[in-house]
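Here comes just one.
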Amino acid sequence: MSRAGEPERIRQSAGYYDQMFDKGGYGGVYDLPYWHSGYLPLFRGVLGELRRLGSRSVLEVGCGTGAFAHLLMDRTTVPYMGFDFSAVAVEKARERTGNAGVFFVGDACNRASYLHPYDTIVCTEVLEHVEDDLGAVANWQTGAKCVCSVPNFDAESHVRFFRDEKEVLARYGDQIAIRQIARIRKPALPDISWRSYARALRWYRYRPGQLLAVLGVGSFEQLGGWFLFSGEKR
């Protein structure tokens, strides 16, 4: 949840996110192929949950530049639709996947964004950015499978973050019958390609703290990460 002494918040607007996605995000992570992205551990976790739940059609809330959609399209035949607040992100998602028809500009808090048929909502790294996150979740159809994530770390664009599973349950348990919560550690590097790792190992060879973080040595609390949770919309 929000903390005292937290960084000053940016004004939530489509223009802010257009600019962020246009620049590619920290380390260009939003423009990386999914197999090089620091979000890959999270994407793999989401895909595993979709398979476990037997999802037959997906609507992704906050598709960003389409990295997860690209992975899903590469590895499954599950029908997919996705939307984002940012028109820049949507255009990049279309270019990335070559599948323009499945992405559209939408607002998570607007019921009109949920008119496409789906049996599963995917909503990763979105709810912490939305002031009325509970209002957004209220738009999801009753009985839909839900696969979501929220962070355990703060950032200037985060409205909130979560210290443990109890806080996740307290925030979303009334609207989602949460069956499972997993902890996924975040890589220290936005680009997890071997070339990026080799460069980082050279840079940090005399800085043991940073070197251990690059190697993934440390706790979930120390390295930061995501609570990946799934269940059914009440």
